[in-house]
Amino acid sequence: MSSRDIGTKQFLNATKPFWRFRANVLKRFTGTDHPNDALGALARRALKQGTIMFNSARLNSRLVAAALGVLTIGTIAFSASAAAAPLPLFPFIFSPPVQSAPPPAALAPSDDEDTVTELPARLKRQIVSYPTREAPGTIIIDTPNTYLYYVLGGGQAIRYGIGVGRDGFTWSGTQHVVKKAEWPDWTPPPEMIARQPYLPRHMAGGPGNPLGARAMYLGGTVYRIHGTNAPETIGTHVSSGCLRLVNEDVIDLYSRVNVGTKVIVLPMDRRADNTDGKRG
What are the backbone dihedrals phi and psi of residue 44, each rounded to the nearest 5 degrees, phi first? Predict the structure, then answer.
């Protein structure tokens, strides 16, 4: 074959109609007509999962909107009931138990406040008829009846209700006031400490002191006529031998008594014996 014939054949092959080459044109790929079945199935699965994820996202957005609505309603309800007992907004969230405050305990009267105790009529301070040969200004202790008489003269006396020694701690005799003190300190004697070791060894004067507002010391004994921070004990046999009055009465008596005043303490059987001031 000549070179001319070869050139003519190549030209004819190059000029074939375009439709003869359609099989070589690239087609757009779709997941349904790809010749590879595995790839097509993978594509269909991806499309399905994308649809599910889209639907799930829509559902989640609705749940979020609902939760926000509940939160808003709860906030409004909480604000409206702020004066009531608080309730947890989300009870399903664990929180430590809240202990309610215990009811307030009843308070005892303050030491610096005047505590008024109503005494029975017979124990209130009063002027009474009291014939005696003792000089005005003398103090007479009626132990069994829990009275203290301050002699006025002319057959009269001021009578005060008092507390006296308990059984085994009463005494009788005649003494004199050797010392006076306002808001006295208290130092329990050794024999009292031996019986009651819980007592303080010393206590400064003041409203909480058991000697009360005033004290009058009797001779060389451990006994005193004094006030008290326990007015309910007036009219009883309660002390270790001292004689107590409510603070209002001891202040009144203190203003009338001088150092050297005679004090007569009658025994439980009213016999004027045991005058040395020891316990009977």
Answer: -60, -35
